Recover the amino acids of this structure.
């Protein structure tokens, strides 16, 4: 079967060489779509959270699906660095490619464009499929818009990280030049970048801060859909104390000793309206890092170090 009938020249050759991997993604997407549609149909009667109900099973599957998709960029980076580029350096087949009227820059360009198109379209399809199931159970335990896994798998940030993984894989593959070590380094590096950027995610936009009297219910300071980043006690001088500071003294959250001078509760949170701005900013950052990695990868080719 022709893996890519519309491709010509070196793109066609590269697609044929990796046709099994290229076919795996659409097959995975088709199976995932069928499963998600089936689960949504099963969960249609109502939000019965029993573990063996349709809704409960959909809830569990969406949790694991979101967490599983967190590893997709690392897999993409490992594949690009290893089988796509590193293996050709290790086996020496890249020299044969360069004898076919192509310079090193064109050789790398073919690899990167093929991988980027596949990773971008494939990850976008998986995000769309995930949203079909996630929107049915969104806002529930571990599936809010800000939860790790659900956040990445439901928006364009996953596509951005997959494209970043392609760029990092292209760079690592040329530097390491051995299949398995390149896969390990690229996968680890992609995961490390995702973790580092993700740890700064909720510092991009300013939080909203609310206060209420000590006699009030702190659980009502933020909307139900908000992502709470911090909550605690305020003193008359404006100092902040942990939310259980009074409990440690009086065994009551609302009964504070006079010497503590506690006057109110405070809560910091991100409203649900921060979801899309954060997604777009983080995606832009991932693409900017991808551009830097690609520049480094092509510079290696131009300087003859690759």
């Amino acid at each position: 079967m022709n893996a890519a009938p519309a491709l010509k020249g070196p793109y066609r050759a590269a697609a044929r060489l990796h046709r099994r991997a290229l076919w795996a993604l659409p097959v995975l997407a088709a199976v995932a779509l069928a499963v998600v549609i089936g689960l949504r149909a099963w969960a249609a009667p109502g939000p019965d959270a029993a573990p063996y109900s349709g809704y409960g099973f959909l809830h569990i599957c969406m949790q694991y699906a979101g967490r599983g998709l967190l590893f997709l960029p690392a897999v993409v980076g490992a594949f690009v660095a290893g089988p796509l580029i590193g293996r050709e350096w290790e086996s020496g087949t890249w020299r044969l490619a360069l004898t076919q009227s192509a310079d090193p820059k064109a050789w790398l360009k073919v690899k990167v464009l093929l991988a980027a198109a596949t990773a971008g379209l494939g990850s976008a399809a998986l995000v769309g499929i995930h949203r079909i199931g996630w929107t049915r159970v969104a806002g529930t335990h571990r599936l809010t818009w800000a939860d790790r896994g659900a956040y990445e798998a439901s928006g364009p940030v996953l596509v951005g990280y997959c494209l970043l993984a392609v760029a990092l894989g292209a760079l690592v593959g040329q530097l390491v030049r051995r299949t398995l070590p390149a896969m390990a380094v690229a996968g680890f590096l992609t995961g490390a970048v995702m973790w580092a950027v993700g740890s700064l995610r909720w510092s991009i936009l300013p939080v909203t801060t609310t206060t209420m009297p000590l006699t009030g219910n702190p659980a009502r300071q933020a909307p139900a859909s908000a992502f709470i980043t911090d909550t605690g006690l305020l003193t008359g001088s404006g100092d902040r104390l942990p939310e259980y500071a009074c409990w440690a003294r009086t065994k009551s959250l609302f009964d504070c000793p006079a010497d503590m001078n506690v006057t109110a509760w405070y809560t910091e949170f991100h409203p649900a309206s921060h979801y899309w701005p954060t997604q777009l900013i983080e995606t832009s950052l991932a693409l900017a890092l991808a551009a830097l990695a690609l520049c480094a990868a092509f510079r290696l080719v131009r300087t003859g170090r690759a």
